[in-house]
Specification:
Elements (H helix, E strand, L loop, with lengths): L3 H56 L4 H13 L6 E7 L1 H7 L9 H9 L3 E4 L3 E9 L16 E10 L1 H18 L1 H34 L16 H29 L9 H18 L13 H23 L6
Antiparallel strand pairs: 1-4, 2-3, 3-4
């Protein structure tokens, strides 16, 4: 059998699971996007810092050996991190100072050399930023075969985001697992409270209905107003009260019609027999007298059919005014 307590508990658990299940991919996606954006900013700052350091050393008139040591040290500084940094020497520098050992240039590096514009690439678990090193006026003192704006080299910064994303997802999942029982507990406490309130209100409503069932005289039937706390139950109680008022009205009207003539509204024989014992008893107690008058009119129904109920009700009065004195 379905109960409100079971419904609230099941609904709360389903809502908690739904919220948890929908929040995890949404928040995970947001974490990933935030980590990717932060990685691109960090890569840009790292490339700019590398270029600034290189420019300062170049300004001192460094040697070819110093340049090789700088490149080796810079690329090795990211060995134990999620980043990988590589500096590519362009053809202009190689023509002036000779080639160096470096990795093969892929499409992104080649395009950066050709266009002189930075390149960025974001995949699911990695980011890549390719920054061209453009010749400035100060660079022409050493790079005599270059012109301002020529691309002398390219800094390629890559980052593996898998460890960071996995750690963020693990932390979020752990936090959600800690939070997950609280909606269940809140649902349980809410269920207990609502169940208590509903049971209390339903019992009050049942007592009112039992009172109606146990009342034999419908004319005295009446429900006192009660507050069932819930507006829905109060609405039901108001409708029940209105129904009981109608039943009481029907019972009163039925009793009246049983003791009175339907056409004239005057007491009939049944009403006389019902009220006579009480009237005689009251007269005996008070030492008074009782006078009983009975009127028998012929053709009473044709009068009603011809002249309507208004004439019917006035006919007995006219008859009493024209009748001879009653015997005592």
């Amino acid at each position: 059998m379905k109960t409100i307590r079971t419904f609230i508990m099941v609904a709360s658990v389903l809502v908690s699971v739904l919220v948890f299940g929908s929040a995890y991919p949404i928040v995970s996606h947001s974490f990933t996007r935030a980590i990717q954006a932060n990685s691109l900013r960090t890569s840009s700052a790292m490339a700019q810092s590398t270029f600034n350091s290189m420019f300062q050393l170049m300004s001192t008139g460094w040697t070819h050996a110093q340049a090789k040591n700088f490149l080796r040290a810079t690329e090795g500084s990211t060995k134990d991190s999620d980043f990988a940094l590589q500096i590519y020497r362009g053809s202009i520098v190689s023509a002036r100072f000779g080639p160096i050992q470096q990795g093969a240039m892929d499409t992104a590096v080649t395009q950066a050399f050709r266009t002189g514009k930075p390149q960025q690439d974001v995949s699911g678990t990695s980011t890549r930023s390719v920054f061209p090193l453009r010749a400035q006026t100060q660079c022409l003192r050493c790079h005599t075969n270059a012109q301002v704006g020529n691309v002398l080299g390219v800094i390629d910064v890559r980052r593996n985001l898998a460890p960071s994303i996995q750690a963020a997802r693990h932390d979020f999942l752990t936090s959600m697992l800690w939070i997950f029982p609280f909606p269940i507990l809140a649902a349980f406490l809410l269920t207990v409270f609502v169940n208590w309130r509903v049971d209390h209100s339903v019992r009050m409503l049942e007592r009112s209905i039992d009172f109606v069932n146990q009342t034999s005289d419908l004319k005295s039937l009446e429900l006192r107003p009660i507050d069932l706390w819930f507006s829905d139950l109060n609405g039901i109680f108001r409708q029940v009260s209105q129904l009981i008022d109608k039943l009481r009205g029907v019972a009163i009207e039925k009793d009246f019609l049983a003791d009175h003539d339907a056409l004239t509204g005057l007491p009939n024989r049944r009403g006389l027999l019902e009220h006579l014992p009480r009237t005689l008893a009251r007269a005996r107690r008070q030492g008074g007298q009782v006078v009983i008058g009975m009127l028998d009119l012929d053709d009473f129904k044709p009068i009603n059919d011809t002249w309507a109920p208004a004439a019917t009700r006035s006919a007995p009065l006219m008859a009493t005014q024209t009748a001879p004195p009653w015997p005592r």
